């Protein structure tokens, strides 16, 4: 009789995800997601890291490119609740937009669904208005003139 490998529990998968995220292990984080994933970080379309993703490769791209836009200053998990395949992680964060120095602070709730040890659904809820405002903050250029931050759309 062959011993079956144990599938990690929802809590184990979520804790592993949070640990890899804190360590900056992009490949390790991405490996925890199913090949097909239902991902949404709702918010303003002008903010390049927000929106939907559908594959593990797109998830890896998110975790690779997000630090090119934002410097994380604080990310605090306050509570993790698990009910079967579903998990909710709540906390708060403070980050800074790299291109304009604008601060972003928000509470968050992260909802995850885990199936067979893989994350199949990801929802990250934050103060999306504060995030959009920080992204659109006017910055001062090298010439000392105020410049409107790039909105991601043609003017």
Q: Tell me roughly what share of residues is in helical segments.
A: 25-40%
Number of helices: 4
Strand content: 35-45%
Overall 3D form: globular
Biggest sheet overview? 6 strands, mixed
Average of the residue pLDDT scores: 89
**Span of the ends, CA to CA:** 66 Å
* Radius of gyration over C-alpha positions, nearest whole angstrom: 18 Å
* Strands in their spatial order, largest beta sheet: 2-1-6-5-4-3
Low-confidence stretches: 141-155
N-to-C order of helices and strands: HHEEHEEEEHEE
Give the beta-strand count: 8
Structural class designation: alpha+beta
What does this structure look like?
With 155 residues, this protein is an alpha+beta fold. 28% of the residues lie in helices and 43% in strands. The chain is built from 4 helices and 8 strands. The chain has helices at residues 10-23, 26-31, 56-69, 128-136, and strands at 33-41, 51-55, 70-83, 86-97, 103-115, 118-126, 139-140, 146-147. The protein has a 6-stranded mixed sheet with strand order 2-1-6-5-4-3. A two-stranded antiparallel ribbon has the order 7-8.
Brief digest:
With 155 residues, this protein is α+β, with helices and mostly antiparallel strands. The protein has helices at 10-23, 26-31, 56-69, 128-136; strands at residues 33-41, 51-55, 70-83, 86-97, 103-115, 118-126, 139-140, 146-147.
Structural topology:
Layout: H1 10-23, H2 26-31, E1 33-41, E2 51-55, H3 56-69, E3 70-83, E4 86-97, E5 103-115, E6 118-126, H4 128-136, E7 139-140, E8 146-147
Parallel strand pairs: 1-6
Antiparallel strand pairs: 1-2, 3-4, 4-5, 5-6, 7-8
């Amino acid at each position: 009789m062959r011993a079956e490998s144990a599938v990690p529990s929802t809590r184990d998968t979520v804790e592993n995800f949070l640990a890899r995220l804190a360590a900056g292990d992009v490949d390790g984080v991405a490996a925890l997601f199913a090949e097909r994933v239902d991902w949404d970080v709702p918010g303003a379309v002008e903010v390049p890291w927000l929106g939907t993703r559908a594959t593990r490769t797109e998830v890896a791209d998110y975790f690779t490119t997000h630090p090119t836009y934002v410097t994380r200053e604080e990310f605090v998990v306050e509570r993790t609740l698990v009910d079967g395949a579903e998990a909710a992680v709540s906390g708060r964060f403070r980050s800074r937009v790299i291109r304009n120095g604008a601060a972003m602070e928000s509470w968050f709730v992260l909802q995850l669904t885990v199936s067979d040890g893989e994350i199949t659904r990801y929802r990250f809820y934050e103060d999306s208005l504060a995030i959009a405002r920080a992204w659109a903050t006017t910055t001062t250029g090298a010439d000392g003139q105020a410049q409107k931050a790039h909105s991601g759309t043609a003017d």
